[in-house]
Specification:
Elements lengths: L1 E5 L3 H12 L3 E5 L4 H11 L2 E2 L2 H4 L5 E4 L22 E4 L5 H4 L3 H4 L4 H9 L4 E3 L5 H6 L11 E5 L3 H13 L3 E4 L22 H10 L2 H17 L6 H10 L2 H4 L3
Parallel strand pairs: 1-2, 1-4, 2-3, 4-5, 5-6, 7-8
Antiparallel strand pairs: 6-7
Bound molecules: NADP nicotinamide-adenine-dinucleotide phosphate.
Organism: Sphagnum jensenii
Protein name: Pyrroline-5-carboxylate reductase catalytic N-terminal domain-containing protein
Keywords: Oxidoreductase
């Protein structure tokens, strides 16, 4: 299976490295000059590609750029991509970083907005797991304490394929429903940044309250931004767990 990844920050790089190590053919793209992109691609075990090349002749395209960058992607960059190519997006909306995006401020589901911007259906996955965990906390299938990742989307076959990829990166996959339900793993929900196993994640997804998520997201990110020194990965997960009674007991 061939993979194209756009955006090589912490999450895009983590996905690229894990999938390349699992034997997938991975092409990558960011905004850097070709020589810098080539170095990064080599480090990840991937092939550097222009935006045109990264979406060509692949089975799955990962879009791993911040929400603010989604409308800035060239309008027609997916125009020659066949409809059966799966688009996975990892975006989390943070107003302090992404600016106020009016529709998201009004409560539009983030992946629904991304799909509208791209003019293509998307699968949401890998968004609620911190990049640190993606890089360091994967485990073999069946091992105790394996962390799970939520997958949302309207195409059941595509979700199954993405779930297999998740498994290959060292995590269990949990079906979180349709794309309109994908708010259940956006920032400010019990699933977000809490590193749960499959049973815990299913419960967290079911217990999410949409109306509370943006205020909870803001509370958490303000604490993180104001922390001096910056919080460790463990402290960030502990903070997110502490926002929800059930998960607080795990911290
Ligand atoms: N970091 C995490 O732990 C994590 C985990 C899950 C989900 N997410 C979400 O995933 C998204 C990406 O997160 P991140 O932390 O990886 O972001 P990041 O570190 O800021 O990296 C963003 C990447 O996107 C690239 N980019 C931006 N605009 C682009 C464009 N127009 N065309 C091509 N590439 C472009 C940047 O390119 P350059 O390198 O060339 O600047 C950079 O490689 C965010 O919405 C974030 O909330 C993050």
């Amino acid at each position: 299976m061939k993979i194209g990844i756009i955006g090589l920050g912490d999450v895009g790089s983590g996905i690229a490295r894990k999938l390349a190590a699992a034997g997938y053919e991975v092409k990558v793209n960011n905004r850097k000059q070709p020589d810098e992109l080539a170095l990064k691609a080599k480090e990840l075990g991937a092939t550097p590609a222009t935006l045109e090349e990264v979406v060509k002749d692949v089975d799955i395209i990962f879009i791993c750029v911040p929400a603010i960058a989604i409308p800035l992607l060239p309008k027609d960059f997916l125009k020659n991509v066949p409809p059966d190519v799966i688009i996975v997006e990892t975006t989390n909306y943070y107003p302090f970083r992404d600016g106020g995006i009016e529709e998201l401020e009004k409560g539009k589901v983030e992946s629904v907005w991304v799909a509208e911007q791209l003019g293509r259906p998307v699968i949401k996955a890998f968004n609620e797991l911190p990049a640190y965990a993606l890089e360091h906390l994967g485990k073999a299938k069946g091992e105790d304490g394996r962390i799970a990742i939520a997958v949302s989307g309207d195409d059941e076959k595509a979700k199954q394929i993405v779930s297999r990829l998740i498994n290959d990166t060292g995590f269990d996959a949990v079906d979180a429903g349709s794309i309109s339900e994908s708010w259940r793993h956006q920032p400010g929900t019990p699933a977000y940044c809490t590193e749960l196993n499959a049973a815990e994640l299913k419960k967290a997804l079911a217990e999410a309250v949409k109306e509370k998520s943006s205020s909870t997201r803001e509370f958490a990110i303000n604490k993180i931004i104001k922390s001096n020194p910056p919080p460790s990965h463990e402290e960030i997960v502990k903070l997110h767990r502490s926002l929800f009674t059930e998960n607080a007991q795990k911290s």
